[in-house]
Amino acid sequence: MDTQPRKKILLVEDDPNFGMVLKAFLEIKKFDVTLCKDGGKALIIVKNQLFDFFILDVMLPNKDGFSIAKELKDKGIKTPFIFLTARIMKEDKVKGFELGALDYLEKPFDPDILYLKIQALLGKQSEVVLDDESTIYEIGNFKLDVVKRVLVLNDIETKLTYKESELLKMLIAFKDNILLRSQALSEIWGDDNYFTTKSMDVYITKLRKYLKSDKENKIEIQNIHGKGFRLILNE
Length: 235
Description:
The protein has helices at about 15-30, 40-50, 65-75, 90-100, 110-125, 160-175, 180-190, 195-210; strands spanning about 10, 30-35, 55, 80-85, 105, 135-140, 140-145, 150-155, 155-160, 180, 220-225, 230-235. It has about 240 residues and is an alpha/beta fold. The longest helix has 18 residues, at about 195-210.
């Protein structure tokens, strides 16, 4: 049985027939898909839900795909996305990539190609590599020395335990991305069971208290239900 949580996709497509067919296809491929037919409503949905991937049609009522992408970029939302469009002008493609699109699919297209592109792009997003040679990690005004196991803020040192130091190191390395609970438990605790999960929650609470000391930045450790945690910095 597949116990991995499904990746959540927001599909913004105003063609009701095409949208429903594409939604059904992606759900067969084990994605959790939310279909929205209106550009303005899509931004409201994004405000209230977390997604792993966006599929944006360019031509939409109220707000087109380009406008959605620009607003997401302005808000600092880094969720990967691709454009779908029947527009094939070079200028449109250039604009799409300038807005941060990872790809651009021209209609009509083979849904299997879309699926393979999503798989490949999500894989690239999740490949966060920890630098084993680095000993200093920074977030906001903090500096984490993983050798000395100290968290430094304005020359004031806070001594950390091994697990606190390693967990914070991983969160910083995965900044703005989801650190899977299972990965952290496996690498730091060496096991993923009920007791280690509860232990990790205690350490997350401790780290949140430490990070509140930076009054110039709002550093948050978000709990991503069913997945893990995400460290974000609001300067």
